[in-house]
Structure formats: structure tokens, C-alpha cells
């Protein structure tokens, strides 16, 4: 059996085809995997566990089915759905992961992250990230009526779109010194994350690797670890190329 990693699906009620594609994908993978890790931004927006759009019910039911057949599923929040909580995880049969989380694949330690905290060159975003993760502010946000929360969320997304027009691609990517610092802090040779929408397996030297999941704008992007090899499946990365396969030993 295998371990499956996905990230950055950005599911939204306004895109039912992507929701269905996700449900179908998980159903197809159910007979092949024994663990599932979702590394952030499963949803494009999440206003609180008390507000669950009906359009997401088929996904929740499919996640529950995975648990019923013995598949362990883990959920890490991202920059879009950081208000996801234990209530949602509970009724969808998942376990919330803190960021970062250290796991073992085979005999190797692998650090899991969503990845946005690595983009430290984007100073305005990191400022937003700090206050948006404040527990007291989150509590206050959840006390607001649904319409108020939606209005605040829409304004934040609009401002983010405007700011991105003036930011270079390099600023919104990871800072390589920060990657080195985090990997040294946790004493790992493998870092696996999403967020940047730039799927790849990067060799960092000294047998260290940064593995990046892609987003699901057109087709599924996912990583499978079969007990020996870790393989990245993404339409932007040639299948079976050296850049998509990594042996963990």
C-alpha cells in the first residue's frame, strides 16, 4: 500500500466540476493507499466549521468512506483555509496536522509544510499571515455573522489580487536560505510542501531535496510513496522523468 500527498485544490462551490473530480480521484485511489495527507488549501475559502456549503457534502462523504475502509487521512491548513478546525476534521474522518509536521517515509524523515511560511521575501504577506493566525482574532472572526465573515474574506482576497499584480514571481516563491534554515532546524534531508504552485523535485545538494506539490487548476497534482520511491504526478512535469521520481532509502 502507498501514501498519497495532495495540496492546493482550492475547492469552491462555484466550481462543481473540480469538486466532483476530487471525489472521483479519491474514490479511485482508495484501493491503492493506506494514508492520505492534504497539505493545505483544500478549499479556496473557509469561513469557519459552522459554515459548510452543501456543495462540499460529496467530498466530506468520500473522506468519511476513506476512514471507514481503514485509510488514515491527515489535514494541514493552508493560507486559504486556515480557519479549518477540529470540528470539520472530526466529521470528515481526518486528523489535523500542525505545521510543520515531521513524518517517516520508509527509513527517511520528511518534513511536511504548506509552504507559505517559507516565502519570507513577501513581507506584506508574512505580516498578514502573522495577524491572521492570531487565535484571539480568529475567535472574534468566528463570532461574526456569516455575511460579515464573507464580506471580510472577499475584501482580503481582492486586496491580495491587487498586490500580486505588483509582485515578482521570485518574491512569491520560497526563500532558499529559509528552506536551508528550516531543514537544518529539523535535521531533515527531505522537505515536502505545496503553496507555490510550482511542482518539482529540487535537488539541493548534499543529498537533500525539496519536493513541491502542484495545484489542481487543470488536472490532479499528487505524490505517491510506494514504500521505496516517491513519485510526483503532475501534467507540468514529464511522467517517469528523473525530475519526478525520488528514491528514499
Structure description:
- The protein has a single domain (2-247), classed as Metallo-dependent phosphatases (Purple Acid Phosphatase, chain A, domain 2), CATH 3.60.21.
- It is 32% helix and 23% strand.
- The protein contains 7 helices and 12 strands.
- The strands form 2 sheets. Strands 4-3-2-1-10-11-12 form a 7-stranded mixed β-sheet.
- Helix 1 (16-29) runs parallel beside helix 2 (57-68).
- The longest helix has 19 residues, at 146-164.
- It starts with a strand and ends with a strand.
Task: Describe the structure concisely.
The protein is an alpha/beta fold and about 250 residues long. It has seven helices and twelve strands.
Number of domains: 1
Query: In percent, how much strand structure appears in the residues?
Result: 15-25%
Evaluate the radius of gyration.
Answer: 18 Å
Strand order of the largest sheet: 4-3-2-1-10-11-12
Which class of secondary structure composition applies to the elements?
A: alpha/beta
Oligomeric nature of the chains: single chain
Q: What is the second-level CATH architecture?
A: 4-Layer Sandwich
The CA-CA distance between the termini, in Å, is 17 Å
Topology:
Elements: E1 2-6, H1 16-29, E2 33-39, H2 57-68, E3 72-76, H3 86-91, E4 94-97, E5 101-105, E6 108-112, H4 123-132, H5 135-142, H6 146-164, H7 176-186, E7 190-193, E8 200-205, E9 208-212, E10 222-225, E11 229-233, E12 245-247
Parallel strand pairs: 1-2, 2-3, 3-4, 6-7, 7-9
Antiparallel strand pairs: 1-10, 5-6, 8-9, 10-11, 11-12
Helix pairs in contact: 1-2
